[in-house]
Amino acid sequence: MTTAKLLFTPGPLTTSATVKAAMLRDAGSRDRDFLETVREIRERLLALGGAEPNAAGEYECVLMQGSGTFAIESVISSAIPREGRLLVLVNGAYGRRIAQMARVHGIEIETAEAPENRQFSPEAVAERLTASRSITHVAVIHCETTTGILNPIQAIGAAVERAGAAYIVDAMSSFGAIPLDLAAAHIDFLISSANKCIEGVPGFGFVLARRARLLEAKGRARTLSLDLYAQWAGFESDGQFRFTPPTHTLLAFRQALVELEAEGGVAGRAARYSTNHAVLMRGMAELGLEAYLAPEDQSYIITAFRYPEHAQFRFEDFYGRLSELGFIIYPGKLTSAPCFRIGTIGRLSPSDIDALLVGIRRVLQEMGVAPGIRAVHFSGAGGCASAQ
Ligand SMILES: *Cc1c(COP(=O)(O)O)cnc(C)c1O
Would you state the CATH architecture of domain 264-387? Predict the structure, then answer.
């Protein structure tokens, strides 16, 4: 067996031994115990979004097999009617992915683009909705994992609600780690997955949907397997997934939810991730490595760092040497600047971040890059040109 490595990535993430151990049994997908696990997971997820998990509640939880993208696609392909029109707010790769998804399904879309290092302005969204009255749905990314930037979803949600449109939020990399109230943020559909900040293993995504909007989705689906309404109706009728559920992943996820609660819920997790991030930022600054975003735009989820400006720096070499030391970092996904990324989420503690920083220092020295690092800046780079 190869030795365990720590994942400083946007997911899948490092998980606890107890979460992994929860998978060491087989569960019958129609067995009473397993159905109770599914029911409990759906309830706990609603509670994490501040929604009442009972019949009087305004929100419903739908679990969907697959990675996070499948759950997003189930919303995009199920919620928007044939005569609908989707506005996608794009300031990174995940926004672009939603636009691409809508095109595949032949959904009428518009995009509003902001630079990768700028949060979306709620005022700009409001203006766009006034100018283009045929928009029925708006989709935005909460934490755009491309850079780690946070979009102001609550203020944008208020603008979307005023315009009478439905509001779709990809909170994949923030849910469970950044406090959020579904109703206060005017959210109709929120999407996240098992293997991000709730610290489960990959295998399913979930949608927290306003019940009225979910009921409207009946008969709108463009696929059979990703039909969000039908999936929900299945859970409501017999508590089951329509097709084979990722049983082991669900067992692990239930344990992950218990551990989230034991940590003090979202607030407790936010505190640990914030400390992780603060330790990382301090250490990277000491090494001369520069973050891509301005501090006020940066979340504590994941951080993009500019490549050091040095002939000897090659990302593949840097990555490989860190991996050999047991640290998995993440390549960049930016169109505007060469960056690599470091996630501060998952079962990681500040001492793990310290260990990573020691590793980075050693690797940069071995590569002949440190000391005296300067970051790469292209002229006009940083995506500062306003495209909004
Ligand atoms: C991780 C992530 C996704 C989903 O990615 P999958 O690889 O399909 O799990 C979607 N949006 C954001 C913002 C993400 O961070």
Answer: Alpha-Beta Complex (3.90)
